[in-house]
Amino acid sequence: MNIHEYQAKALLREYGAPVSDGRVVTKAEEAKTAAGELDGPLWVVKAQIHAGGRGKGSFKEADAGEKGGVRLAKSVEEAAEEAKKMLGRTLVTHQTGPAGKQVNRIYFEDGSDISRELYLALLVDRQTSRISFVCSTEGGMDIEEVAASTPEKILSFDVDPATGYQPFHGRRVAFTLGLEGQAMKQCVKLMGILYKAFVEKDMEQLEINPLIVTEAGDLKVLDAKVGFDGNALYRHQDIASLRDETEEDSKELQASKYDLNYIALEGEIGCMVNGAGLAMATMDIIKLKGAEPANFLDVGGGATKEKVTEAFKIITSDKNVKGILVNIFGGIMRCDVIAEGVIAAVKEVGLQVPLVVRLEGTNVEKGREIINQSGLDVIAASDLNDAAEKIVKAVKG
C-alpha cells in the first residue's frame, strides 16, 4: 500500500526526521488559509498523487508554458492560486502513463535553501531477504537513469538483521554522499531513524529524492515516497487508515475485498487462473500466441463459488477485454467449484465476449459436465496450448 508525500513526511516527523512544515488541502477555498499558516517567504505547492516525476509532469489540456505538478510561489495569494489551478485536473508523468492521475490533494510546504541534492532509499532486497540502503550523490534525478548512465555513483548495501542498524552504516552512507562535519553526524542519526521506521511500520520502500543539504549545512528530507507491505497492515491500523482508494485501480480495489490477487494490465484477453505460477505461464503463452493479457488474476487454492463469480465480474468490467481464458488446474481447488462460479457469473452479468475454459485435475469430469450442460456458448480446450490458441483466434479472428 502506498501513501501520499504529506502522509509519509508526517510519519517520518513522528520518528524525528527533519522535514519542512507543511499543510494539505482538498478544496480550493481552503488554499489561502492553509498557505497563510506557513511563514514563507517561499512556498512550495505540490500535487499529491501516487506517482513520481510530478515536477516534470504536465496537466492534460494545459495552457502553453504551464508548470508541472510542483510549483514555487512567493506569496500566500500566489500559492493559493497555483493550488486552485491544479486541484481537480489530471497530471500526467512518466510513471502514471498517458491516462494520468487526478489531483485531489495539494500540499503546501515551506521553501528550503538547497546547497546539494542527494538520493537515498531503503528497500527490501529480494535476493538477500534483508533491508538495503541505496544512496547516490545524484539526487533529484530518476535513479533508473543514474543506474543506466553512471552506476558507479550508486552505493547499495544491506543490513544484517542479527545486528540491525549500526552507526557505521550511517557513516558509510555519509562518506558516499561526501558529507562532513555536522551533516555527517546528522546522517548517522537520520539513517537510524529511517531504519527504525522502516522495520517498525513494515515498509517495503522508503525513498527520499532528494535528501538535501541546506545552505546552513543541515540535512533535510525534501521529498518522501513510502510503500508498505499489504500483508502486514493488520498490525498497523494507523497506517491502513491512510489508504487513499481514489489512487487505486477500482478493479484491483474490488478484488482485494474478496481476497483475490488481481493486477490490471493493458491487453485484451482476461485471465482467470488458480496459482500464481500458472497465472504467469498463462500470461506468457498468450503473449507467445500473439496477444496481450488484460490482467493477472489468481483466485487462489481455496476459492469459493462466490469468489469465482466476483472474479469473473471484475474481468468483464474491464472495457479492454475482448475475450476471456479460464485456466484451472485443480489440486486443492476443485474444477466443479470453478465451473459453478463461471456459470453463475455469466448468468448474472452476461457473456459479450468469447470464453475459453480449460479444466484439469480434481473433479475435472464433473466440472466439464457442468460447463457442457449449462447451455452457454463456451469454447472447451484440452490443454493450455490449445486454450491459448483458441482464445487468441477467437479475439483476433
From TrEMBL:
The keyword Ribosomal protein does not apply. It catalyses: succinate + ATP + CoA = succinyl-CoA + ADP + phosphate; (S)-malate + ATP + CoA = (S)-malyl-CoA + ADP + phosphate; GTP + succinate + CoA = succinyl-CoA + GDP + phosphate. Its EC number is 6.2.1.5. Residues 9-55 form the ATP-grasp domain. SUPFAM superfamilies: Glutathione synthetase ATP-binding domain-like (SSF56059), Succinyl-CoA synthetase domains (SSF52210). ATP binds at residues 46, 53-55, 109, 112, 117. Gene3D superfamilies: ATP-grasp fold, A domain, ATP-grasp fold, B domain, Succinyl-CoA synthetase domains. Binds 1 Mg(2+) ion per subunit. Substrate binds at residues 274, 331-333. One of its GO terms (cellular component) is succinate-CoA ligase complex. Pathway: Carbohydrate metabolism; tricarboxylic acid cycle; succinate from succinyl-CoA (ligase route): step 1/1; One-carbon metabolism; formaldehyde assimilation via serine pathway. Its cofactor is Mg(2+). GO terms for biological process: succinyl-CoA metabolic process; tricarboxylic acid cycle. Mg(2+) binds at residues 209, 223. NCBIfam families: PRK00696.1 (NF001913), sucCoAbeta (TIGR01016). Succinyl-CoA synthetase functions in the citric acid cycle (TCA), coupling the hydrolysis of succinyl-CoA to the synthesis of either ATP or GTP and thus represents the only step of substrate-level phosphorylation in the TCA. The beta subunit provides nucleotide specificity of the enzyme and binds the substrate succinate, while the binding sites for coenzyme A and phosphate are found in the alpha subunit. Heterotetramer of two alpha and two beta subunits. Belongs to the succinate/malate CoA ligase beta subunit family. This is Succinate--CoA ligase [ADP-forming] subunit beta.
